Amino acid sequence: MVTLADVARHAGVSASTVSYVLSGKRSISAPTRERIQHSIDTLGYRPHAGARALASSRTDILALMMPLRTGLYVPVMMEIAMAVTTTARSHGYDVLLLTGEEGPEAVRRVEGSAIADAMIVMDVGLDDPRLPWLREAERPAVLIGLPTETVDAGTDGLDCVDLDFEAAGARCVEHLAELGHTRVAVLGEPPAVYERGTGFAARTLTGLRAAADRHGVGLLHRPVDGTYAAVAAAVTRVFEERPGTTALVVQNEAAVEPLLALLRHQGRAVPEDVSVVAICPDQVAVHASVPLTAVSVPAQEMGRLAVERLVGRLAGEEPRGTELIAPRLTPRASTGPVAAPASPDVPTEDRRGHGGR
User: Fold this and answer.
1) Where does the chain show beta strands of DSSP type E?
2) Least packed by Cβ within 10 Å: which of 12, 44, 98, 221?
């Protein structure tokens, strides 16, 4: 491994001179700096992380708080984490992943130990208990999510990035209303997600209900776990309570394939008998057994934006507040217009054949 002494010998200077160039603590002439930098590049020298941190009070590490709680769809969380990691590396930072459900304690640990220069916080609740600690922390933080107090009172020193989930919910209803659907059911996140006040789920439901009111759409909402049995129970209940339901909105990636399998088992054709819209990553929508009309969850973009916000803050920028990514709905094979009422003497197969797109 190349050492600082190797660089000094190669450049023909003392080790202390190399150290001063790296730390910036003393003024060194331009020719000498250039010679030392040439030696660093030629030899491939990398300063020891611990020594660099002591010299600069910086660790070049970003802490990513990603609590793996009940009901969360882990592949999406990991996609965000991968985007955070790759973007951070492009800016010269490593990432410390914190997955425990520690709440404020995790913030206090990062702040008190100086193990990271800044924090990215995921799975943000509407009334997140970490917020007071984040506001008081010396290290900057970015939220991937949108708490209630940020919406109501401004950012107050916090940066937030997220999909505009309220607009995403509204866009799903608008799409179905344009196709003539007036009775829609929502298969939402698992009950635990709503019980702990997770922001994205609550905001989506707000958007769904507001758009349903505007368009005269009757809306049922049923939280559901992602198992086949749970989906079957929820869908059976929906069609019992609202026999005229012609469309389903799914905000639960784990429930997508159980739902499509159940509809096939029940003899309900998609989209001829029932249309399905999802809020999910593109790979889930595209590779479903019926390609799904969906609002994409831009996991990579959220991770990238969060890191770029933090890098800016560490460079001295002021907080830029909240940035919500506009939802993008892509129509695919799972939605179509409501089938016209069929004559009783027309066979079921013929009705389905003429009731789709």
Assistant:
1) 61-65, 94-98, 118-121, 141-144, 159-163, 183-188, 218-223, 247-250, 275-280, 293-296, 322-325, 329-330
2) 44
Positive or negative, the CA dihedral 77, 78, 81, 86 is negative
Query: What percentage of the chain carries pLDDT values higher than 90?
Result: 62
What's the pLDDT tens digit per position in 247-278? 999 999 999 999 999 999 999 999 999 999 99
Query: How far apart are the C-alpha atoms of 45 and 336, rounded to whole Å?
Result: 61
pLDDT at 154: 43
What is the Cα 312 distance to its own chain's centre?
Answer: 20
Q: Where are the alpha helices (DSSP H) in 14-58?
A: 15-23, 30-43, 49-56
Residue 247 β-bridge partners: 184, 275
- What pLDDT does 110 receive? 86
Q: Angle at which helices 299-314 and 74-90 pack, to 10 degrees? A: 40
Q: Domains of the chain, with CATH numbers?
A: 4-56 (1.10.260.40), 61-164+299-327 (3.40.50.2300), 166-296+331-353 (3.40.50.2300)
Beta-carbon contacts of 200 under 8 Å, excluding residues fewer than 6 positions away, are: 145, 146, 162, 163, 165
Angle between helix 4-11 and 15-23 (nearest 10): 110
The 3-state DSSP class for residue 264 equals helix
Report pLDDT for 22.
75
- CA dist 191 and 172 (Å) reads 21
Q: Is the pLDDT of residue 54 over 60?
A: no
Name the pTM for this structure. 0.78
* Three-class DSSP category at 185: strand
